[in-house]
Design brief:
This protein is mostly helical and 110 residues long. The protein has helices spanning 25-30, 37-44, 48-57, 74-82, 92-107, and strands spanning 34-35, 64-66, 69-73. A hairpin with a 2-residue loop joins strand 2 and strand 3.
Length: 110
């Protein structure tokens, strides 16, 4: 049997902790929030493997590497998703995007 810790456990506080005096709401919201590959895939409703492939062949959202860890900024995911927003399949931008995607696949670039 393992002996109990001699340090007193801090009771969880039910009251919110005050923000540091130099922190403002604007700076707190300006800091990017990073998501793991699995979290980003869930947010975009894609397979995690799809994002992995897109990191290798290109065409996916911007990512960051922290050592071995791959992270996605929430703002980059939103920007990438917004760039794929179209009104209809007859939209000229959609046709152009589709033609570029097909040409890239044909050439093996993707």
């Amino acid at each position: 049997m393992r002996p109990a810790s001699l340090r007193p456990q801090a009771a969880p506080s039910s009251t919110p902790q005050p923000a540091p005096p130099n922190a403002t709401a604007a700076t707190a919201s300006a800091q990017p929030r990073y998501l793991t590959n699995d979290e980003a895939a869930a947010l975009l409703r894609l397979s995690p493997r799809t994002l992995e492939k897109q990191r290798v062949i290109g065409g996916g959202p911007r990512f960051r590497k922290f050592g071995r860890r791959v992270m996605y900024a929430l703002s980059d995911l939103e920007t990438w998703a917004d760039a794929r927003s179209f009104e209809a399949t007859c939209d000229p931008e959609y046709a152009e995007h589709r033609a570029e995607s097909r040409a890239a696949r044909r050439d093996g670039v993707r």
